[in-house]
Each structure stands twice: as C-alpha cells, then as structure tokens.
Amino acid sequence: MEYSDALLLDVLKRVRTIAVVGVSANPVRPSYYVARYLALKGYRVVPVNPGLAGQDLLGERVYRTLSDIPGDIDMVDIFRRSDAVPGIVDEALTRWPKLDVIWMQIGVRHAEAAARAERQGVTVIQDRCPKIEYQRLFGELRMGGFATGVISSKL
Fold it and tell me: How do residues 48-70 score in pLDDT, each as one tens digit?
C-alpha cells in the first residue's frame, strides 16, 4: 500500500482521539507500546479489549467493544488479524457514521472492508503503524540511528 507523506502527516495532525482495538496490557506487546507512545504524544487513546474491559490502562478505561465507548473518536487503530477487520469496520461505521480514519497496523489488510469505509468518506490506511509514521515524519527516527530524509532542527 502506498500513501503519500502528506496524507499520513495530515492524518497524524488532525486526529486527536484514537480507539486502539486489540490493545494489550503487557508492556512488551506492540499494541501496548504503540498506544503508550501515542498517548505520550498528546493523543487521547481509548483502549478496546474485551479481556481487559473495565480496567484502567494508560489513564483510560478499557472498553469491551467500540460500541461501548461513550463520545466520539477520530480514528480506530486496529491491532487484530485481518479476518477480524470487517466486523470492526462495520461496528465503527455504525457507531460513528462520521468517523475520520481507520488505521490497520502492519500486516493487517482487508480490501473489501477498506473500500466500504472509503465509500463512506473515511480515510483508510492499511499495513502501517502510526507510531512509526509519526516518528518518521516528525524526525524522531533519527534518534534511533535511522536516516529518515526529514530535515529537522530538533536536537
């Protein structure tokens, strides 16, 4: 999947509240450290995991499903297998008909569900990680020894 840096940067700048579906409470799991990173960058991260429902994680209550989340969110970040995506997308679009973004993590893709969301005006990103894209686009990967091609005056 090809996405322009302009699109990814626009998404990362405009969303403020992210529901992370499939988040783990285990700090060595990618879903945990991606959610934690996004929270540290100022996003409100709403965790969704039926096995952790009712607990607190990263300063937020964990919800069983997207439908249980009170209020609005801007983006659904999916940390589930690709075969689970259609149900998650359907639930998200039912809950928030004006949802802004559906983001599927690295290795997660579903063409039909993506097309269905895009027909409703939702920006869909597949097979990418918002943490990695944030770090790359905001010049933070260079701190780990990666040449990003992004010029920054940050030290």
Answer: 999 999 999 999 999 999 999 99
Which residues is 18 bridged to in the sheet? Answer: 45, 75
Please report the pLDDT score of residue 151 as a whole number.
55
Q: Which residues pair with 56 in a beta bridge?
A: 61
Chain position carrying tokens 């626009």: 10
pTM of the model: 0.90
Give 99-127 pLDDT, tens digit per residue: 999 999 999 999 999 999 999 999 999 99
SS (H, E, C) the chain: CCCCHHHHHHHHHHCCEEEEECCCCCCCCHHHHHHHHHHHCCCEEEEECHHHCCCEECCEECECCHHHCCCCCCEEEECCCHHHHHHHHHHHHHHCCCCCEEEECCCCCCHHHHHHHHHCCCEEECCCCHHHHHHHHCCCHHHHCCCCCCCCCCC
In this structure, what token pair is assigned to residue 154? 């940050």
For β-strands 75-78 and 101-104, DSSP reports them as: parallel
Write out the two tokens for 74. 């801007």
